[in-house]
Amino acid sequence: MLEWLETFPYGFKADDHSTWTKEHLPEHMKGGMYHRYRVQYEKVIWDARTEPAVIDAFERLWGTRELLVSFDGMNLTLPSTDLKPSTPWPHVDQNPNSKGMQCVQGILNLAPNGPDDGGLVVLKGSHKVNETFFKLHPETKGAGTWGSFDWHGFNEEEVDWFKDRGCEEIKVCAEPGDLILWDSRQIHYNKVPSTQNTHWPHANIFQEDKHMRLGKPGTYSRDRLAYEPEDIDLVLKLAGVKVY
User: Fold this and answer.
1) Fewest beta carbons within 10 Å, which of 20, 142, 187, 229?
2) 84-106 burial, b for 16+ CB within 10 Å, e for fewer?
3) Which Pfam families does this chain map to (predicted)?
């Protein structure tokens, strides 16, 4: 992933921490979430998706190896002097009109991830009362925070509703190689690190379009990947392009 950042014309160097700043990085959000530049198709992302142990875990979950994946981005949060503390953005990634467990999200953790490191925060058990919340708050279904791909953000009062029902806010800690899975109905968000570790959580579905970088319209785009995936047959099946 650091090599991928070095392919951009902004001067980022993995071995020079003075370049670990916004001025030397491609456009991103929330401290390190990358959705553009076709990153979701890069070799490093497909290597993670096609890792046999990852596929085995989802096979046990869904009862089949004929799996489909989303076209996520990646999160590489670099410790930096210009990295501001993150503000919680609790959300779910499943529309309430879709009942039951429809999607399971995951993080393939690549670095030691402790309580002070960046990474995943969840409201434990919130998926169990998700349907009840939307039944009691029907006006929320039409709220402006609904994104085009099931994303919905909660305000502080709504989060308190879940906490009042025993949903505890937890920072998930993990070791390198751990696979973290959660129901998309569970409220969650990511936070930036307060230590000098780097991390890679997940994202959602984003299209390649015009973007802003450092407050100005971005002028750099890509029509080819920096690093091509290798197991094309499995990639095409997971992408839903080729039948199993």
Assistant:
1) 142
2) eebeeebbbbbbbeeeeeeeebb
3) PhyH
207, amino acid identity: Q
Give the per-residue pLDDT at 195.
60
Residues 158-191: tens digit of each pLDDT: 999 999 999 999 999 999 999 999 999 999 998 8
Q: Are 109 and 231 in contact (CB under 8 A)?
A: no
Work out the average pLDDT over 190-204: 55
Asked whether 9 and 15 are in contact (CB, 8 A), the reply is no
Rounded distance between C-alpha atoms, residue 174 and residue 105, angstroms: 16
DSSP of 179-212 = EEEEETTS-EEEE--SSS--B------------E
* 3 state DSSP class of 107: strand
Structural contact between residues 206 and 145, judged by C-beta atoms closer than 8 angstroms: no
Whose CA is closest to 113, among 58, 49, 195, 2? 195
Question: Rounded mean pLDDT of 119-146?
Answer: 85
Question: What pairs with residue 124 in β-bridges?
Answer: 168
